[in-house]
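[step 3/7] inverse_fold.run input=structure_tokens len=315
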């Protein structure tokens, strides 16, 4: 008696398949981003960077260039016209969602969409979508400033992380939804934390219990940073996490279904083949041309030949 055949599970189509060059570019940008966010904690106490007030502005000038290189690399290796169209639609939706909760205790409904889109469309598409959505929303809300590249990078990480979650091809239903909701909540708090790290050295001021002190031991600065997060941004980060969690649980099934249906219809990974145009008679144009040539050759009159003559010229 043979065992029943297992149901065939097809791999989920990705709008952008990360190649080696794109993966290396993303890795380099991530390393640069970690340095840009964490330079107060990573720089040696005796280094000039630890005592430089210009370091955040230097990194803010470099990050847009690095982001442009990575986005161009991913687009060059994987974004076709269909992926660009979907990217534009989702980025516009994300940019429109962000102002809905602006200034209201950290409520930012765009996070759940970035998580779900990154899950369905993959880490490469997710990173580009997160960065582009944050850029578009900054233009829409007038939030352009030295913090914008950091926001773009952090949101790109949020969507990229969702695309790297396990079970993209097999995990479905309630378990997937719970995983995405938990990830969205953690990522929302993590986003606020890394953005605090970006602004902490020059926003907290000098001489306070939560200030960054250049040259102090790592443990002391970490304790001050934790106190800074608890006293300034936790009231924003927790509502953002709660909204992302609730929106993912309530709207996640419908959004995931719509995104996967759109991905299947777009057929991102289908091979492209060019065929000859079909004429009104139902035959390909190339076949019609060949048939016409054959008919013309058949209609040409055969060359006339005179009566056969013998060797002496007689008939």
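[step 3/7] decode complete -> sequence:
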């Amino acid at each position: 008696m043979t065992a029943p055949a297992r149901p065939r599970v097809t791999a989920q189509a990705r709008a952008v398949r990360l190649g080696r060059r794109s993966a290396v570019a993303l890795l380099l940008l991530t390393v640069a981003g970690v340095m840009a966010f964490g330079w107060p904690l990573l720089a040696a106490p005796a280094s000039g960077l630890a005592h430089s007030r210009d370091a955040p502005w230097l990194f803010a000038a470099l990050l847009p260039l690095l982001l442009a290189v990575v986005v161009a690399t991913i687009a060059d290796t994987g974004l076709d016209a269909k992926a660009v169209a979907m990217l534009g639609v989702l980025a516009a939706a994300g940019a429109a969602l962000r102002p809905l909760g602006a200034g209201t205790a950290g409520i930012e409904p765009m996070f759940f969409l970035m998580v779900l889109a990154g899950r369905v469309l993959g880490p490469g598409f997710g990173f580009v979508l997160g960065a582009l959505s944050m850029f578009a929303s900054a233009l829409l809300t007038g939030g352009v400033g030295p913090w914008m590249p950091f926001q773009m990078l952090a949101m790109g990480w949020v969507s990229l992380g969702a695309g790297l979650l396990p079970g993209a091809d097999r995990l479905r239903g309630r378990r997937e939804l719970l995983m995405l909701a938990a990830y969205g909540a953690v990522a929302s708090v993590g986003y606020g934390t890394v953005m605090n790290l970006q602004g902490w050295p020059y926003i907290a001021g000098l001489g306070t219990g939560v200030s960054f002190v250049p040259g102090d031991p790592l443990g002391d600065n970490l304790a001050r940073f934790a106190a800074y997060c608890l006293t300034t941004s936790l009231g924003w980060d927790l509502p953002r996490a709660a909204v992302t969690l609730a929106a993912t649980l309530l709207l996640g099934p419908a959004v995931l279904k719509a995104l996967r249906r759109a991905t299947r219809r777009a057929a991102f990974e289908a091979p492209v083949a060019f065929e000859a145009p079909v004429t009104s008679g139902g035959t390909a144009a190339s076949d019609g041309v060949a048939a016409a040539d054959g008919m013309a050759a058949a209609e040409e009159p055969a060359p006339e030949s005179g009566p056969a003559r013998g060797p002496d010229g007689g008939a």
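[step 4/7] annotate
The domain at 20-44+54-266 is CATH 1.10.1760.20 (Arp2/3 complex 21 kDa subunit ARPC3).
The radius of gyration is 31 Å.
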